[in-house]
Amino acid sequence: MSAATSFPFRYGALRPLLSVLGMGPAFSSVTLQGETLRVKMGWAFRATIPVHSITAVQPRQGLVGGIGVHGWRGRWLVNGAATGLVMITVDPPVRAWAVGIPVKLSQLTLSLDDPDALSVALGR
């Protein structure tokens, strides 16, 4: 079994609030182990994505629609900050869980301390 590589979420001014709500660094992770990328933001979001289903990884610029977990129709934003964003395209879409409800995931935007490291690790 290969070792897991972690990519910490980036948090901004709302870190204390997200921590109290159970979505801070102690409860959240992005890990790559073998051919699987796992994303978890506390109780609010979790996904297991096969690496072979990741078709693109690119930096995301511009304004975002909030901090925390937001999404609709397969496109999800899971972030603790408005910077350090990376957008992952998933095809075919996979099942993820948002606040305990199964959802479709075809595009995932994350805020990471080092978004380039994830791109390199995924070979993109």
Name some characteristics of this structure.
124 residues; nine-stranded mixed β-sheet; 2 helices
General description of the model:
With 124 residues, the protein is mostly beta strands. The chain has one domain (5-121). The chain is built from two helices and nine strands, in the order βαββββββββα. The protein has helices spanning 15-20, 115-121; strands spanning 5-6, 28-33, 36-41, 45-50, 54-59, 68-72, 75-79, 85-98, 101-111. Strands 1, 2, 3, 4, 5, 6, 7, 8 and 9 form a nine-stranded mixed beta sheet that branches. The chain is globular and about 35 Å long. The model has no long low-confidence stretch (mean pLDDT 94).
Which helices and strands, and how do they pair?
Blueprint: E1 5-6, H1 15-20, E2 28-33, E3 36-41, E4 45-50, E5 54-59, E6 68-72, E7 75-79, E8 85-98, E9 101-111, H2 115-121
Parallel strand pairs: 7-9
Antiparallel strand pairs: 1-2, 2-3, 3-4, 4-8, 5-8, 6-7, 8-9
Compact summary:
By secondary structure, the chain is mainly beta. It is built from two helices and nine strands.
Uncertain stretches:
none
Give the CA-CA distance, first to last residue. 23 Å
Number of domains in the coordinates?
A: 1
- Radius of gyration (CA) equals 13 Å
Question: Helical proportion?
Answer: 10-25%
Average pLDDT works out at 94
What is the global morphology? globular
Strand portion? over 45%
Q: Structural class given helices, strands, pairing?
A: mainly beta
Q: Give the helix tally.
A: 2
Beta strand count: 9
Instruction: Summarize the biggest pleated sheet.
Output: 9 strands, mixed
H/E series, N to C?
A: EHEEEEEEEEH
